[in-house]
Amino acid sequence: MEVKGKRAHVLAVPCPAQGHVRQLMKLSTQIANRGIKITFVNTEYIHAKVLAAMSEEDKRQSHIELMSIPDGLTPEDDRNDGFKLIESLRRTMSRNLTDLIEKINCQDKDEKISHVIADTTIGWILDIPKKMGAEPVAFQPFAAAGMVLQLHIPKLIEEGNLDINGFMMENELIKVSHDLPPWRRNELIWSIPSDLKGQKILFECILTAGQSIHHASWILCNTFYELESSACNLIPNFLSIGPLLRSDTSKSCASGGSFWVEDTTCLSWLDEKPDGSVIYVSFGSIAVLSQDQLNELALALELSGRPFLWVVRSNLVNGSQAEYPNGFRERVAERAKIVEWAPQEEVLAHSSVWCFLSHCGWNSTMEGLSLGVPFLCWPYFADQFHNENYICDMWKIGLRLNHDENGLRSRHEIITKIEMLFSDRSVKANALKLKEKAQRSVSESGSSFKNFETFIGHLKK
Ligand code: UDP
């Protein structure tokens, strides 16, 4: 949309979850670095977390205006209850956002909101911009493949592959294109095997958001064409602009979007380790483990005899503090570093890191593959299973960690796969090839570079 004689002013609105805020913040920083005014809107709760985790230097250097809207919950409500939060956002977010846009537009008539970039997870807000004289742009924080599936939902229901709650009917596989790995039961992007009620709510959300995506004039996605060309080709108005990496957003707003303070002591710890020796373990911001599972993992890391850096959030064990096996901390003290939150991209870029034991969230997947690090896959929910299929079957840059008959990833399984990953150089070689492709896509004249320039040109029109 042309806003003649006026400067573009972009409003970026993420879903209030760590992986979503981080990605959109990286994109927003890249847009701001091109001289475009950008206002980033979090919910009040997340806004406070982001500010608390930002360094003073980041606050000074940031070119992004940070604002907030209420999430519709009371102060006593549990914001870790993602489904309660989403239901509240569906009730209240459109109104709150409309009020905010009106307020901004009244403050400065020359800098009215011209474009709204909305996370597709909260895609229903894409209805708002046009009513406010702005252009809607969607931002897809998952793989393009996930969006292909999302856009196919009505057809899959019509053809009897899915019921109206998103459960698979007869078929064991859902295939939406010959070139894409199929989705098995429990691998759908709304899959939460441990919580079927939650799964139903997530499905409704994804279905509704999918319908609103058609309002967007562009769909931006943190992927690159060479990685997912067949999925990219299936989505209209699609611009792959990834990988979105912090190192590419310059120093401005280095910690921007983190909910936790990053423990940078792990970087000097990594400096002391030999090249290609360290196992990096992180489950992102949401995944949780049972205490039994944590014990198996801890013992596997100990028995591997290798140095490891492990991110253990204070809520990793079913929402509570982890308890380690007896004497574990003392026995591994010489070669282990445990932190609550790491500067993940810097860790993955460090020469001493060999592999990434990951829950395969899309950000972690993009970061690991763009930095040439092989994966040990430990998916937990939603799109993470399909990302695992991409990693292990299509790109061949990682190995699966399978469950045993008790539903646990046993220490034996973990050690076996760690050793396979250290000895099988072909996986590392594939990872390095993919890293090169990723870097090429964001270098001058690369596919993502060109798409981003197209988008910036459009904003500046
Ligand atoms: N992350 C981080 N430090 C950590 C663990 C994770 O900075 O110790 C970042 C990671 O780099 C990624 C995001 O948190 O950008 C997690 O997003 P992802 O999509 O991988 O998983 P989610 O948290 O959404 O499940």
Q: How would you write the strand order of the largest sheet?
A: 3-2-1-4-5-8-9
Q: Describe the sheet with the most strands.
A: 7 strands, parallel
| Gyration radius over CA | 22 Å
Kindly state the number of beta strands.
Answer: 15
CATH superfamily of the largest domain: Glycogen Phosphorylase B
Approximate shape? globular
CATH architecture of the largest domain: 3-Layer(aba) Sandwich
Segments where pLDDT lies below 50 for 5+ residues? none
Any overview of this molecule?
The protein is of the alpha/beta class. 42% of the residues lie in helices and 14% in strands. The chain has helices at residues 18-32, 44-53, 56-61, 82-107, 128-131, 144-158, 196-212, 229-233, 265-271, 291-304, 328-332, 344-349, 362-370, 384-394, 411-423, 425-442, 447-460; strands spanning 9-13, 37-43, 65-69, 115-119, 135-140, 173-174, 183-184, 218-221, 238-240, 278-282, 308-311, 336-339, 353-358, 375-377, 398-400. It has a seven-stranded parallel sheet with strand order 3-2-1-4-5-8-9. β4 (115-119), α5 and β5 (135-140) form a beta-alpha-beta unit. α6 (144-158) crosses α7 (196-212) and α10 crosses α15. The longest helix has 26 residues, at 82-107. It comes from Fraxinus pennsylvanica. One of its GO terms (molecular function) is quercetin 7-O-glucosyltransferase activity. Belongs to the UDP-glycosyltransferase family. Pfam families: Glyco_transf_N, UDPGT.
What is this structure, in a nutshell?
One of its GO terms (molecular function) is quercetin 7-O-glucosyltransferase activity. The protein is an alpha/beta fold and 461 residues long. It has helices at residues 18-32, 44-53, 56-61, 82-107, 128-131, 144-158, 196-212, 229-233, 265-271, 291-304, 328-332, 344-349, 362-370, 384-394, 411-423, 425-442, 447-460, and strands at 9-13, 37-43, 65-69, 115-119, 135-140, 173-174, 183-184, 218-221, 238-240, 278-282, 308-311, 336-339, 353-358, 375-377, 398-400.
